[in-house]
């Protein structure tokens, strides 16, 4: 099933992101994670492609196994930086031939050792990949796109960034998944702006439970997510107590999700960091809300 059809059929969509292990790490670990995640009944699971496609040899097969072995709809990330059209076609044809019909079209990040990371290849931006996929495959695939509630870290003009997102949607994106954020008010303002510019596709909110101090430092460096005072207080209070920090991070993410569901968010995309036990706790915390959403006639239309 295409993910856009899941959004059409369900008021609330709950999904996970996983990433392939490094090439030197056995695959058993990720399949053990998937064994645990399957029991949480996600609507789909996305599989990342790695920086500069560094795990590209593993990503498609894991995405295929999510669909065919675990019987869960799969969203295959596809980055275009440094890729040729023929390479993209090879990957997408393989996915389609194996039953995966959902692609998250991304520019991607360069490999760390790359000297001129965005020069080679047939695509410069995610919108180029979206146009190519839609023109070549039509409605055979559902295309997802990334959205940035606080603006893309490489764009210092939020209005320009928003209009670029609108162009990407108009080029063929069926649904959006946001970058992680820790302040729901920023997300709500972002949703208001998307409505103003005419973006009507469903938007799933990206939530990452922060469970260790090093993780948050990497996140802020990579994507520039702002940290609310409440969140900073948690980090300071439990900085030297990993177990308590994990529990506090799970509680904070749960509070975010509860508030988002109450506001009518179309979906939650949980960045699991391959930590199935964290996903399990959060899923348990919101289980009743997920069940109630199915029969709640008042839950439609609050956001998108």
From TrEMBL:
Pfam families attached to this UniProt entry: MTHFR
Gene designation: metF
GO CC annotations on file: cytosol
Pathway(s) served: One-carbon metabolism; tetrahydrofolate interconversion; Amino-acid biosynthesis; L-methionine biosynthesis via de novo pathway
GO molecular function, one term: FAD binding
Organism of origin: Acetomicrobium hydrogeniformans
Named cofactor requirement(s): FAD
Protein name: Methylenetetrahydrofolate reductase
CDD domains, alphabetized: MTHFR
Keyword NAD attached: yes
EC top class named in words: oxidoreductase
Reaction it catalyzes: (6S)-5-methyl-5,6,7,8-tetrahydrofolate + NAD(+) = (6R)-5,10-methylene-5,6,7,8-tetrahydrofolate + NADH + H(+)
Keywords for this protein: Amino-acid biosynthesis, FAD, Flavoprotein, Methionine biosynthesis, NAD, Oxidoreductase
Biological processes per GO annotation: methionine biosynthetic process; tetrahydrofolate interconversion
Protein family per UniProt: Belongs to the methylenetetrahydrofolate reductase family.
Keyword Flavoprotein: yes
Coiled-coil stretches: none
InterPro entries: FAD-linked_oxidoreductase-like, Mehydrof_redctse-like, MTHF_reductase_bac
EC number: 1.5.1.54
Residues annotated as transmembrane: none
């Amino acid at each position: 099933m295409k993910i856009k059809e899941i959004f059409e059929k369900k008021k609330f969509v709950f999904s996970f992101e996983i990433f392939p292990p490094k090439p030197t790490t056995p695959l058993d670990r990720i399949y053990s994670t998937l064994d645990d995640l399957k029991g949480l009944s996600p609507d789909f699971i996305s599989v990342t492609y790695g920086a500069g496609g560094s795990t590209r040899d593993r990503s498609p097969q894991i995405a295929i196994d999510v669909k065919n072995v675990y019987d869960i709809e799969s969203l295959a990330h596809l980055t275009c930086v440094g890729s040729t059209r023929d390479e993209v076609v090879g990957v997408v044809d393989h996915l389609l031939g194996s039953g995966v019909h959902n692609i998250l079209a991304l520019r991607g990040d360069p490999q760390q050792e790359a000297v001129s990371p965005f020069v080679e290849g047939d695509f410069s931006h995610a919108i180029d990949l979206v146009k190519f996929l839609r023109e070549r495959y039509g409605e055979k695939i559902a295309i997802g796109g990334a959205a940035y509630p606080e603006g893309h870290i490489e764009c210092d003009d939020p209005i320009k960034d928003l209009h670029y997102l609108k162009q990407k949607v108009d080029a063929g994106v069926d649904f959006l998944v946001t970058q992680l954020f820790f302040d729901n008010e920023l997300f709500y303002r972002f949703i208001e702006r998307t409505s103003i510019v005419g973006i009507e596709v469903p938007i799933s909110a990206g939530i990452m439970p922060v469970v260790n101090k090093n993780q948050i430092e990497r996140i802020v460096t990579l994507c520039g997510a702002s940290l609310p005072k409440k969140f900073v207080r948690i980090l300071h209070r439990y900085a030297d107590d990993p177990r308590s920090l994990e529990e506090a991070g799970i509680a904070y993410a749960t509070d975010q999700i509860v508030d988002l569901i109450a506001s009518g968010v179309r979906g939650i995309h949980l960045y699991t960091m391959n930590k199935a036990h964290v996903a399990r706790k959060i899923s348990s915390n919101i289980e009743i809300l997920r069940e109630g959403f199915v029969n709640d006639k008042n839950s439609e239309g609050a956001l998108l």
